[in-house]
Design brief:
The protein has 4 helices and 7 strands. By secondary structure, the chain is an alpha+beta fold. The protein has one domain.
Length: 185
Amino acid sequence: MKFFARFFTVVCLALVLSPCLFPVTVLAKSGAEIDFAADQALERFKREVVAADEILKRAKGVLVMPSVIKAGIGLGGEYGEGVLRVNGKTVEYYNIIGGSFGFQLGAQIKSIFMIFLEDFALDGFRASDGWRAGVDGSVALITVGADGSVDTTKTSQPIVAFVIGQKGLMYNLTLEGSKFNKLQK
């Protein structure tokens, strides 16, 4: 009986993590599709966050991950593709891969906006081969008030991030351990 329980656990783990470890190229989007989705996500970001225009004007670069899918059954994984923009122009494409362990059941879709406010932070991100949040650079996750106002105490950090879910801005999240990899599009 223990064999079947272990076998079931391994199969569930493989199913949950397989999109993160071995992304299926059929699911990969073209550069044009990612750019279009990023444009739409940025418009939503500007609508929901009062200080979005001000922060984006200060940005040296913005990584927009318009659709990150996270799913889990005890063990979880996440995957999404996005675009890095500098001066409003696409310069590179990236994916995000992450895993987690703990009580979780279900799936969610979110958008991630990682804003580089210092040149050294952007340069370090672009030069890396598989950049990890919390390891290769610290990311300050910004909280937003009910009226869309931003907690300005964190906006002086070199890298700030916002996460927007299907129901709006998401709280108490972390990007720690998420890995960002360059894509060829």
